[in-house]
Write a sequence for this structure.
DNA sequence: AACTCGGGGAG
DNA sequence: CTCCCAGAGTT
């Protein structure tokens, strides 16, 4: 008689991978690992995880930091709302819970950035509670195990709970076993069913529908946008601006610019957007760089131009959080930029090593 | 339920 | 190139 829960636990014990948060006992460190892992691959998370915890070793340190510092530590990880929510949640925890995470899933769920999955993961892994933690991997494993095309969250929840009920109080290890199985064996394509500890219980394997489970939603084709942006030089200083906190890339810094309208050249768009957004008049000098970048739901081609400041904008000296602001090129590394801008900065600093004249200097 | 929100690795 | 990932918030 098959016993999926015990098969999963036994399999998990034999192959504990080195995963951020896996060997941790501190709920805060598990929390950070789970949030970083949302929609993000484990290899991507690892380097961020260590440096983030070194920079913010506990909830109090995170709550006491500025959002800019947290975003800088998050730079390149994507979904920057996660960093904003983590920061907000830390402050709520200091105010309402004495700087500790609550153990109750419902209270966890009420914190910003903690949804059904993360609340279940924390409750089970950090606090040993018998709660399900259904992420994309677990959803796929359970869909195949029961041969379900599109199980709803309540159904998945119930399936996970029934496994947990057979797991002898080992909810955390069982949840992690399901996730591990999904990421290493029960993969979206080319699953390794011969290596699967629960293949004897798998209804999809029995029916030959493994590759069809779970069903995929049809996807739309990605629209493409051309963006014009400017490296506005004022002597040896560059103009950067902070994006609004809500919305795409919220709170990150960027070189000012915007969408190219129909009948407009990228250079014209750059000059117009700088004037409209920052009230700064410029003269476009020459193309600086072009970067293509893909987001989840659209693609952009970023056309960047060297430009000369003419008038308007902030004073040369400004407070640390003022936007827009003038910075020296070597100061750019202190600010959190989107990946598309970061690629430009890399190439800019490489070019900086070769002898040349600044476009804006006399 | 549908849509928004990044980035990167695998195939 | 396409797909999709240790999801959550908003509408």
């Amino acid at each position: 008689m098959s016993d999926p829960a015990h098969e999963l636990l036994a399999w998990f014990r034999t192959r504990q991978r080195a995963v951020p948060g896996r060997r941790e006992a501190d709920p805060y460190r598990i929390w950070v690992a789970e949030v970083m892992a949302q929609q993000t691959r484990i290899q991507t998370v690892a380097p961020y995880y260590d440096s983030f915890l070194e920079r913010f070793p506990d909830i109090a340190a995170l709550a006491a930091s500025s959002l800019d510092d947290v975003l800088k530590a998050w730079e390149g990880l994507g979904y920057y709302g996660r960093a904003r929510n983590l920061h907000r949640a830390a402050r709520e925890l200091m105010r309402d819970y004495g700087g500790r995470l609550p153990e109750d899933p419902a209270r966890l769920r009420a914190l910003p950035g903690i949804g059904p999955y993360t609340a279940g993961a924390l409750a089970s892994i950090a606090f040993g509670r018998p709660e399900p933690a259904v992420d994309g991997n677990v959803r796929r494993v359970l869909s195949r195990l029961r041969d379900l095309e599109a199980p709803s969250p309540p159904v998945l929840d119930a399936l996970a709970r029934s496994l947990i009920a057979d797991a002898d109080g080992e909810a955390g290890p069982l949840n992690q076993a399901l996730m591990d199985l999904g990421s290493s064996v029960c993969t979206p394509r080319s699953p390794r069913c011969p290596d699967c500890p629960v293949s004897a219980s798998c209804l999809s394997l029995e029916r030959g529908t493994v590759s069809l489970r779970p069903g995929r939603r049809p996807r739309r084709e990605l629209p493409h946008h051309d963006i014009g942006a400017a490296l506005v030089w004022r002597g040896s200083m560059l103009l950067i601006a902070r994006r609004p906190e809500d919305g795409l890339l919220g709170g990150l810094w960027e070189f000012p610019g915007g969408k190219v309208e129909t009948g407009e050249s990228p250079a014209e768009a750059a000059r117009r957007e700088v004037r409209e957004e920052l009230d700064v008049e410029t003269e476009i000098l020459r193309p600086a760089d072009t970067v293509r970048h893909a987001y989840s739901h659209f693609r952009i081609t970023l056309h960047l131009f060297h430009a000369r400041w003419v008038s308007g904008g902030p004073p040369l000296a400004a407070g640390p959080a003022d936007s827009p602001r003038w910075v020296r090129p070597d100061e750019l590394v202190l600010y959190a930029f989107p990946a598309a801008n970061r690629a430009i900065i890399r190439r800019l600093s490489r070019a900086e090593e070769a002898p040349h004249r600044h476009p804006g200097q006399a």
